[in-house]
């Protein structure tokens, strides 16, 4: 295999490989973004192991200028490793400079769910007609546990009676029971087509996931609630766990986790809950 002439040619080949492997468009786009970010600092086609180590060590958040989180660094590392493994295996490069890149020890995630009172305040912050679309985002996140990229792609055809079909991570389809609050919302939304069409039209038929996240973040700010849009999904997860009597399998199914070990983070309890339990003895 002849080495690619430039990064664009390399990424075209990798995109085809990823499509053939069944990766989702979101995964492919994320991987391409990482390689183009790498290309801003070092030529990916000639990068050495030391170049990649230095690049990973110096990664910063574009918005804050601070070092990226451990989980973000781990994602960048995984995507770079996948690219160079493909380059080496396909004969486009004789070596694999990403082999043996330092690993991050990522601390166990701790859910930071909204409380029921905070969800009510968040919905109150979306009570005006101008915030009707944001309110719909919040309902889907809090009462169906949808991620921001899943909310962006909701269509009328996804609802079948009391069942919602969701295309989640990796393009995997799943079904969820429709919460009564979401059923009320669905009655006011289009029965066919995108619920949240994009003004960009054919270029992007539905709103971008970033727009969904930003809208929820602004609503959280208006409500005076610290947190991120994902806290809405954490609210859903902790409520399902509590209402199911601590049944991890039920919660795994509702959260659509491939690995039940991911679901176990919802069994972690806050310090104030421990204090309440002890003082109530």
Automatic annotation (TrEMBL):
Residues 5-88 form the Core-binding (CB) domain. Belongs to the 'phage' integrase family. It comes from Nostocoides japonicum T1-X7. This is Putative Tyrosine recombinase xerD. Residues 109-279 form the Tyr recombinase domain. One of its GO terms (molecular function) is DNA binding. Residues 93-114 are annotated as: Disordered. PANTHER family: PHAGE INTEGRASE-RELATED (PTHR30349), PROPHAGE INTEGRASE INTD-RELATED (PTHR30349:SF64). The keyword Coiled coil does not apply. Keywords: DNA recombination, DNA-binding. The keyword Secreted does not apply. GO terms for biological process: DNA integration; DNA recombination. It holds the Pfam family Phage_integrase.
């Amino acid at each position: 295999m002849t080495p690619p002439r430039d990064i664009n040619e390399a990424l075209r080949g990798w995109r085809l490989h990823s499509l053939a492997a069944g990766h989702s468009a979101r995964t492919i786009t994320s991987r391409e973004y990482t390689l183009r970010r790498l290309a801003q600092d070092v030529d990916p086609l000639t990068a050495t192991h030391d170049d990649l180590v230095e690049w990973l060590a110096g990664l910063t958040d574009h918005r804050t200028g601070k070092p990226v989180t451990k989980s973000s660094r781990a994602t960048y590392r995984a995507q770079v490793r996948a690219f160079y493994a493909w380059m080496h295996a396909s004969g486009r490069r004789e070596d694999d400079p990403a082999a043996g890149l330092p690993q991050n020890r990522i601390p166990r995630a701790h859910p930071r769910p909204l409380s029921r009172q905070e969800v009510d305040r968040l919905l109150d912050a979306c009570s005006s007609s101008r915030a009707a679309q944001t309110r719909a985002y919040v309902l889907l996140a809090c009462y169906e546990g949808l991620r921001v990229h899943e909310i962006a792609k909701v269509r009328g055809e996804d609802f079948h009676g009391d069942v919602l079909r969701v295309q989640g991570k990796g393009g995997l389809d799943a079904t969820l029971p429709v919460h009564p609050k979401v059923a009320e919302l669905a009655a006011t939304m289009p029965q066919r087509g995108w619920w949240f069409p994009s003004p960009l039209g054919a270029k992007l038929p539905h709103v971008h996931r970033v727009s969904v996240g930003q809208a929820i973040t602004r609503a959280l700010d208006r409500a005076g609630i610290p947190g991120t849009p994902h806290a809405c999904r954490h609210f859903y997860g902790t409520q399902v766990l509590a209402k199911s009597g601590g049944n991890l399998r039920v919660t795994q199914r509702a959260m659509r986790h491939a690995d039940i070990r991911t679901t176990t983070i919802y069994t972690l309890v806050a310090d104030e809950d421990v204090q309440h339990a002890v003082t109530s003895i």
